[in-house]
User: Which sequence fits this backbone?
């Protein structure tokens, strides 16, 4: 960082006494959105922050690597898989079932209760951008949730195709861009890498 960049860097981000929670978004078509959010969870827990990870698409029966290891990190990190599994697509559009729509509504309601409980320092809403993109949630509802969150709470939203309205309200937005992925060569999802 050169001197000019350093002078233009937002100083309030670096203040030790800053208690206001940030809103972060990991989006893009590349791998690493959830992985980066999990890294934030570990970093926050290292400072004794209480973290809740809510996964909106992954179902409890997946038993992903992150779900297994987070059991050992309680009570600092909790993870809940609220989804019903991957959503099927036809001709590039999601084929939504009534169960998936109901599940998304109930899961978001649950997330709102957890966020407003003020029990957490960080809440990760994993794959929530996907739910908005698929038409399972309204962006206005997520914006309302963010605007009314406890002041100190940090919220992390992950998933492809983050809406412009969310990007505008966020403090930090990172786009993961796919340059190359093993799946394009027919390599199946690997334990410990993709799940």
Assistant:
């Amino acid at each position: 960082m050169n001197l000019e960049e350093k002078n233009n860097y937002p100083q309030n981000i670096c203040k030790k006494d800053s208690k206001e929670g940030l809103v972060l978004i990991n989006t893009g078509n590349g791998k690493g959105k959830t992985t980066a959010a999990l890294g934030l969870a570990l970093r926050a827990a290292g400072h004794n922050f209480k973290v809740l990870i809510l996964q909106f698409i992954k179902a409890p029966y997946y038993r992903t690597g992150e779900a297994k290891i987070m059991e050992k990190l309680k009570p600092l990190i909790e993870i809940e898989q609220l989804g019903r599994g991957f959503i099927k697509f036809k001709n590039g559009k999601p084929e939504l079932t009534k169960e998936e729509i109901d599940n998304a509504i109930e899961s978001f309601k649950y997330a709102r209760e957890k966020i407003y409980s003020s029990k957490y320092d960080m809440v990760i809403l994993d794959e929530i951008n996907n739910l908005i993109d698929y038409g399972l949630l309204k962006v206005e509802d997520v914006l309302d949730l963010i605007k009314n969150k406890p002041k100190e709470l940090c919220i992390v939203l992950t998933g492809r195709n983050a809406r412009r309205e969310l990007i505008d309200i966020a403090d930090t937005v990172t786009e993961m861009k796919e340059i190359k992925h093993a799946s394009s060569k027919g390599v199946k999802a690997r334990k410990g890498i993709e799940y």
Remarks:
- Confidence is low (pLDDT under 50) at residues 9-16.
- The longest helix spans residues 98-116.
- The domain at 18-177 is CATH 3.40.50.300 (Rossmann fold).
